[in-house]
Structures are given as structure tokens and as C-alpha cells.
Amino acid sequence: MAEVKIPIGPQHPALEEPELFLLTVDGEEIVKAEMRIGYNHRGMEKSAEFRTFLQTLYLFERICGICSHSHTTCYILAVEEVAGLEIPERAKFIRTLVGELERIHSHLLWLGIAGHEIGFDTLFMYSWRDREFVLDILEEITGNRVNYGINTIGGVRRDIPEGKIDDYLKALDILEERCQYYAKLAFEEGTLAARLSGVHYLSKEKAIELCACGPMARASGVATDVRFEEPYLVYDQIPFNLVTYDSGDIFGRTVVRVLEVIESIKIARYCLQNMPPGEYRLEKVPKKIPEGEAFSRYEAPRGEDVHYVRSDGGENPYRAKVRAPTMQNLLATMESLKGSYIADAPIAIASMDPCFSCTDRIALVRDIRSGKESRIRFRDLSKYGKGGER
Amino acid sequence: MTAELVQILLFPGFVFLFAYAMFVEWFDRKAYALMQNRVGPPWFQPFADFIKLMAKEYIIPRRANPLFFLLLPTGILAFVLTTIVCLPIASNRALYPFEGDILVVAFLLTAASIVIFLMGWFSNNPFTIVGGTRAISQMISYEVPLLFAILTPAILAGSWSITEITAYLRANPILLIIQLPALIIALIALQAKLERVPFDIPEAETEIVGGPLAELSGRGLALFHLATDIEMIVGVTLLANLFLGGFSANPALGLIEFFVKTLILVFILTAMRTVMARVRIEQLVLFCWHKLVPIALVQVLIAVLIKGWWLT
Amino acid sequence: MFQSLVNWARVKSPWILHWNTGACNACDIEVLAALTPRFDVERFGILLQGTPRHADVIVCTGPVTRQVKDRLIRVYNQTPDPKFVVAVGTCACSGGVFRGNYNVLGGIDQVIPVDAYIPGCAARPDAIIDGVVKLLAKLQGKAG
């Protein structure tokens, strides 16, 4: 059979988001894999420059709807560092709690999507059913199911509802029981392991070389986790384990995510039980942020999220830069896609838990030695954003 | 002549099969939903889907071959409907039983699978072409164990006519236990023939967007869905005849027996698709040739030995 | 009589195509959540389809980015008639928080005609179901 080009995307049932993966296949084998990102580019970083620091917070909440808390927390940590604000301890606990609940919801969501990719819809239905427990808790704490909007400069917007903590703990217990069952299922169920183990292998060396991060790196045996390396919020007080697995394949990534959910449940439980009393936000927050710059790291469900904020002393950020985890993992994914089967392509792409709305930024690389002026006009930005799509 | 026409058109012919196909699709979807903790569709759902699709625009893509694009949906329906001539449905006798009709049924069902490949090929779209070639690779893996499985009751009964095989097995029900492995093989192969999870490799929605049917819309899609449903009924009816002792001669009893036996088999197929993940094409080929075919051969051997020493 | 039967079938069996035109995923996961056990839209005959050829209702989420625009038109043209477009989420309705960004054209209605708007950031699954049902009620009214 002649070589056939199979486009996965921009509209494809395996992808939630518009991106194009062009696979050149020979029979069932992929001989070449190309990708085109940028369908989801909305020009967020530029528009942040026209908004105040607080407005940018809510804009960045919408970088990605699944890990919205990660982006806002990462951004707000940078802003608070520039402003020199010390937020109350209770606010830190609430931020950590919401962050971990978000990790649970994101990993369960991934488990369902992974099941859907390999035609195992029952897993999709079951894990999304259990995900609703977390969404209920999040909705009660923050008021929203997704895009929580709990963060604000100098703390959090709302306190934990009174007398509800026992209910949350009960829901988390049920969830933990279910997740233990999924972990058992992952190890013992035959077809799941047959379908996932050995697929899309990424060795430890390659993972380090290609800068993989998050569960993808941890499944290859790289012990990387910002929560350990550079504890932010209250992670230095909380006992928890770093989950790694050394199989390096999709099966390993599944196991890592399921076990991480169980760890996250423990952290969330710790936060709920040891929540210190007191204020949950600062009374007075300056509107203008003093001049300076800051860089913050956050362990999002998908890996390391990095924000850079620079202020020129005004109300708006002078520059806000986002680097989301999917961008790093894409390289590693494309690397091991070659030589695998078409049947594995969707689950292989999904195994990094892609989030292209996080990813699509414009980055221009210029040679600084040549000394050319590196300014870009607004019209050109728009042209770059449109890319090559006709 | 009139009586036969009524039989072909009304019962157990087209109208009955159409209604039962709708019911079986609902049964399948409802059981699937209940096993997934959902409520599932209302009883009229397949009927509404069918009418809606019939009333929709039928787009012929520019790259597709228009003649085949129009003919193939009707073709697959014709192939699966023709099987009712030699298949006993809700009675102990087919409309026109003859020696060798079991092979005709097997041939017509294979032809239906080939139509799926042609549909993919003539749609001329990367997804449909890959889906079509997958359908062919899948076909050469499951057809052999399926035919061996069907061979077992034929050898035991010493006949090539479904009606006679069923009558013989009904008279000697002990033989049904002997051919239990053949029933399991046939069920797995039938699941592969119907392209359902875990063997929905040619259609694999998340990989190749519905495979051969990706370009079909409106009427064509409706007829294809209907044909697949009828193919499922034909498949389970064939298995019920060959492996579960067929149906009673009494019309009322025969009808009840038909419903019970076919629905049990459909439920097994539904459960199979609930608890399993899709396999890869090479896993299916290896599974069929390394596991199913040897077991089927042993089963045929056992049947030959029993026939040779015990039954004569 | 025949026409009313067809209308009844259309209302009872809307197959949807989910198409993210540059959204932040929040509405997308809520659209998917509507399929799962708590909400289970299959009760109303709503099925998620993979290809525009099989779909009746295109469920669009997110603002239209410049790159996605041509694809959106293509997907719309690939869908057989009669077809409906539902804009889910504030961004899809008007561009929302992204309005005015250099790479965002605004709501879905800037590019293709929209039949129903479901606001919310993100639109809840209940709201999405309600929106689709209202669209169908409108359909029935038009026929009657």
C-alpha cells in the first residue's frame, strides 16, 4: 500500500482541542509524524499587558480550563513576590487544597479520556462519575465547577464553608476507595495492560534529554516534582510521597497518575484537617505593583508550569510570560511516535495529557549577537498567529 | 405464492426483521448504558435515529465514486436480508431450505463485510481507506475460526442444511454440550464480524473517525446502521440454530424461544463490549490464528471422532 | 403527517459534533461531562459523533481564532442539512474575555450562523442540556 497521510485534527474525536498531527503511515506503521500547533493561539500574553494585575489573574484562569488553578496560583505567586506580600497561612492552605483537588479532577479526567481513546468507554464513564465528587467539593468551596476563580491578590476570595469539612472528608474517603480499585484494576486487568504496556516507550535518558516533565517524566523514572524540589505554599509542611514508575510506557503513566490521585487525596485530607484559623485574605492590597520581576514554578497536574511577571511600577504587568508543561512534553511525544502503530497514536498523544490551549504561545527566537532590533509590530503578531493555515 | 410473499415481506421477513433490529439495537444500547451506571436511551430511540437519518441530506463527497457511493448501502442491506431465505427464524424450518444453505449464509455475511471494505475504498478519504484495509485484515482473521466453528455442528449432524442440522441437534441435545467451545469461538468471531468493541478496529472512532463509514451521511448511514443491526440478528439467529438447538415448530413457542435465545446471545455480546478495551489489529490477528484456530481445529477433530465412533 | 414524523425524529435524535474553536477546555470538559453518568444525555437521544458527516448539531466552544476560522467553515459545510450550531460558553457567544485579542475574531456567529447561545464560564452541563433542549423546542415550534 502506498503511503497515506492521516491527519489527526484539527477536528478529531480523539482530540479535545484543535491541533493537527499529520501522520504519514505505511500500512499500519507510522513512518513520519509532524505536528502543527497554534490553532488555539489567542494572544493572551499580549492582552495581559492591557489589563491590570487583578484582571490578568482572571484572564490567566482561562489559559486552560482544566488546570486553571495552577496557572492562577503560579501567576499570583510571582505577583506577590514582586509586591512583597505575605499572605495569611489559611489562604495558603486553601490554595493548596484547591490545587490538589484540581489535580485529582484532572487525573481522573485523563483516566477517562485514556479509556475513551482505547475504546474502553466503561472506564470513561466510571472515572468521570467519580470525578463528580471532586467537582462537588470544588463547587461548594469556590462556587464554580471549573474555572474556580478562588485566587485573588493577597489571599483567596472565599473561606471554606462552615461545618462542611466532615462531608468533604467523607467524600474523599469514598473516592480513595474507588481509586484503590482503579489501581488494582490497572495492575490486574488483562486487556488494559496488554493494550498499554510497552507502547510509546520513553527511556529515562531520553526523558531527561528532551526535558519531559510531570507524570510523563515520573513514569520514566525521573524523580522530578516542583513540590519537592522547590516547595511553594505549604508543601514543605505536608508529608507525601513522590510517585515514580520505571516502565516508561503508557501503562506506567497510567499507574503514576492513579497513584498520584491517592497521594493528592492524602494531601487534601491533611489540608482539611490541619487548616489553621484566621484571616483568609489581606485587608489591603496595593493596586500598583512596585517595579521588579519574578519567576515562579508550580507543579500543575501535567507537569511543571512556569510564569514570569515583570512590573514597571504601574497597574498593568509590563510583561507576563507563560510556559506550560505540554510544550515540554510534546517533544518527547513526537520523538517516540515514529515507528509505532496508528492504533497507538491517539493514546500516545493523550498519554502526555495534552493541553494545547496552555501551549499555544508565540515565541520568536532571534540571534542577539547580530544586534538587530527585536521589536515586533502588532500587525505582524496577528500574522504569526494565523500561521500557515489557509 | 402469496403466502411466501407474505413470509418474505412481513413475517419473518423484512418488516419483522426491521422492527426486531430496532428493538435489539435499543436492547444493546440500554444494557450497555445500565452497565455503565447510566439511564440509557428510550425505547423508540433507534427508530427516531433511523427516520432522522433517512430525512437528512445525502452528501456525496467530491472525491468519492458516486455510483458505488449510492449502491453500496443498498447492497449491504440486500446481502444481509437475503440470508432469511435459508435461515430458520422463529420456527424450525427455513423458507427455502436446501443442502448447502449454511455456506450460502456464511457467504452472504462475508459479502457484507466486503461491502464495508468497498465503502471505505470508494469513499477515497485517508480515514476510510485505512478503515477499509483494516476491515479486510480483520476479515481474514475471524472468518477461518468462524467457519470451523460452524463446521462442528454440520459434521455432527452430517448435513449442510441449517434446517436439518437444527432438527438433528434438537433430537440429540447432548451434542450441544460437546460443541460449547465452538459456540464461544463463534461468539468471539461474530463480535469481530460486527465490528464492535473490542474488535471495532476498522471503525475505531478515536483513531480513524468511524473508518469506512466516515464519509457517509443521511440515508446511506441509516441503511448501513440498519444492515449492521440485521446482521447482528442474523448472526445470533444462526448461532442459536446451530448451537442452542434452534426454535420450536409451534409458532408461539418458537417465537418465545427465538426472543429468549437471541437476546441472551446479544446480551453476551453487549457485556463483551462493556468490559473490554479495543485491541490492536496485529493483536487480533495473532489471537485469531494462534488461539482461536487451534481450538477450533481440536473441536472439529472431536466432532469427527464422535461422529465416526459414537453416532454411527 | 410524514413531515411531523420527521420533525419528531429530529427532535428525539440530535447527534452532536463537539468542536473546540480555541476554547480553554473548560466548556469542553463540561460538554463531555454531560455524556457521563450524572447527566447522561443519551436519555434524550443525544449521541456524540466523531465526524461532521454524521452530526446534526455542531456544539462549538470557545472564541474563533484566526487559524481555526477556515476549518470551522469547512466543518460547517461538511455537515449535512438540516444542521444547527450551538455556541457553548461566553467566549463562543461573544468572544468573552478574549474579545479584542489580536488573534481572536470573536464569537462563533462572526463566522457561521448560530442557532442557540449558551452563556456561562464555563457553561454547566445542566445549562448545556437545557440549551440543546430549548433549541429543539424551537425547532418543533417552527414546524408546527
Helix/strand/pairing category of chain A: alpha+beta
State the order of secondary-structure elements of chain B, H for helix, E for strand: HHHHHHHHHHHHH
Total tally of structural domains of chain A: 1
**How many whole angstroms does the radius of gyration of chain B measure?**
19 Å
Q: Share of helix among residues of chain B?
A: over 70%
Poorly predicted runs of 5 or more residues of chain B: none
Parts with pLDDT < 50 across at least 5 consecutive residues of chain A: none
Q: State the distance separating the first and last CA atoms of chain A.
A: 29 Å
CATH superfamily of chain A, by name, is Cytochrome-c3 Hydrogenase, chain B
What separation lies between the terminal Cα atoms of chain B? 40 Å
**Main β-sheet of chain A: number of strands, strand sense, barrel status?**
3 strands, antiparallel
The share of residues in extended strands of chain A comes to 5-15%
Number of helices, counting only DSSP H or I runs of 4 residues or more of chain A: 15
The spatial strand order of the largest sheet of chain A comes to 1-2-3
Assign the CATH topology of chain A.
Answer: Cytochrome-c3 Hydrogenase, chain B
| Structural class label of chain B | mainly alpha
Number of strands of chain B: 0
Number of strands of chain A: 8
Mean pLDDT score of chain A: 82
Task: Describe the global form of chain B.
Answer: globular
Structure in words:
The complex is a heterotrimer of chains A (390), B (312) and C (144). With 390 residues, chain A is α+β, with helices and mostly antiparallel strands. Chain A has helices at residues 44-48, 53-61, 68-83, 89-117, 121-142, 165-188, 190-196, 204-209, 214-219, 226-229, 250-273, 325-337, 345-350, 356-359, 378-386; strands at residues 4-8, 20-26, 29-36, 151-152, 155-156, 292-300, 303-311, 317-323. Chain A has a 3-stranded antiparallel beta sheet with strand order 1-2-3, with no helix packed on it. Chain B is mainly α and 312 residues long. Chain B has one domain. Helices cover 73% and strands 0% of the residues of chain B. Chain B is built from 13 helices and no strands. The mean pLDDT of chain B is 84. With 144 residues, chain C is of the alpha/beta class. In chain C, the strands form 2 sheets. In chain C, strands 2-1-3-5-7 form a 5-stranded parallel beta sheet. In chain C, helix 1 (2-12) packs antiparallel against helix 5. Chains in contact: A-B, A-C, B-C.
